[in-house]
Design a protein that fits this description.
By secondary structure, the protein is an alpha+beta fold. 61% of the residues lie in helices and 8% in strands.
Amino acid sequence: MGVEIYGSEGSPACRCVFLVARAIGLDYTLKPTNPMAGETRTEEFLRMNPAHTIPTMADDGLFLGESRAIATYLINKYAPESELYPREPAARAVVEQRLFYDVGLFAALRSVLGALLYFKSPEQFEAALPQVDECMELLETFLKRSPFVAGDHVTVADLAIVANVSTIEAAELDLSRWTRVQRWLAKMKALPYYSVNEAGAQYLGGVFKKALFQARKAKFSAS
């Protein structure tokens, strides 16, 4: 049957997995899944992933949630010698630290998006922006030390983080203060498999921009 990924192209977490699969030359079957339509709450889906999140992976009887767990599993199983996830303990520890950083980056992005998509609140959006700024400042610091986020070459950490940063860019949040981040993003976009991320980032960025416009319009109309 092969690897199946239940997810959505708009989701940054799913795009992390898509990028890793493409990077290691792994074929997979995408099972489009929309959490907003209740598709992660079905009995069948909950048997695979009780946390009802995407992405969820099915591979030879193994069901796994959480994008970073899926991404590292795929490398360990299908490309164990890949530099994406180095085997040397110190190098791997740095990559894993950056993956934990990405958890916070995704949470910050979700706070900004959620303020508009769920609460329709420009005030909550503005209040959440400093969380994104703090994460970007830390990413800039990482990139002062090395050309990629965990060293001299692309790793799984870069692929996880770029799924979020590309969404921030597509949403037209200001990245001009972080010049190293911009240079790194340009290098990531030049990767031969980056295209699997592009459409989803642009889609979610467009959803964000529309929600921000509508929320500000509603606030102006109410004033």
